[in-house]
Amino acid sequence: MKPAFLLPGLMLKDLLNLRPMGKTLLLMFFIFGIIFIPMGNIMTVYFLLMIFAALLPMTSLSMDDLAKWDRYALTMPVTRQEIVRSKYLLMLVFFVIAFLVSGTIAAVMMYLDPSNATPLWFMLLVAALGIFYGACLIPLLYKFGSEKARYLMFVLMIAAGVFLVGWFALFGESFTGDLLPFVLTLDAASIAAVVASYFVSVRIYEKKEF
């Protein structure tokens, strides 16, 4: 029988390895917050939060790849599916934290200046983009490795930024009820993309040799 702590243990290993990166991202977020929030450009802060939430699991994968950690992990009583699952659970944990932080910032801003409050629909839109970004990137990392996937990471990040710019170019900062089904559809699609991405990643990882 497998020890019940293996899956949480895999996530704990990633969290410990990501502590230096997490401190760097917190410092960057603090700097960006000081720059953008006084300018009233708080939406950029939400976008960065979601990107950071996606980057941390990707960094974990890159660190495992460079350290050849998978060779050691597969000698333990843990399946390849569980190794992949730990990465997706880690990603979802970071996205939940990012969304809660975004909600806290939005609540504080609404209290201080209701006219400059960020609507919930925008946070849902950015969350959908961030989750979809992570869902696309994890299989690419498993398929091509950290070095080759690094370039694809920036391409996907630029694509997400272009999408947001295009959104505001078409609709501005206003939001009507007609667009709500579209935003909710994007959120549902991003969740479906994570599920599909997990099975694709498992299939890729099962075929890899270390």
Automatic annotation (TrEMBL):
<feature type="transmembrane region" description="Helical">
    <location>
        <begin position="88"/>
        <end position="112"/>
    </location>
</feature>
<dbReference type="Pfam" id="PF13346">
    <property type="entry name" value="ABC2_membrane_5"/>
</dbReference>
<feature type="transmembrane region" description="Helical">
    <location>
        <begin position="118"/>
        <end position="142"/>
    </location>
</feature>
<keyword id="KW-0812">Transmembrane</keyword>
<keyword id="KW-1133">Transmembrane helix</keyword>
<protein>
    <recommendedName>
        <fullName>ABC-2 transporter permease</fullName>
    </recommendedName>
</protein>
<feature type="transmembrane region" description="Helical">
    <location>
        <begin position="151"/>
        <end position="170"/>
    </location>
</feature>
<keyword id="KW-0472">Membrane</keyword>
<feature type="transmembrane region" description="Helical">
    <location>
        <begin position="182"/>
        <end position="205"/>
    </location>
</feature>
<dbReference type="InterPro" id="IPR025699">
    <property type="entry name" value="ABC2_memb-like"/>
</dbReference>
<feature type="transmembrane region" description="Helical">
    <location>
        <begin position="21"/>
        <end position="39"/>
    </location>
</feature>
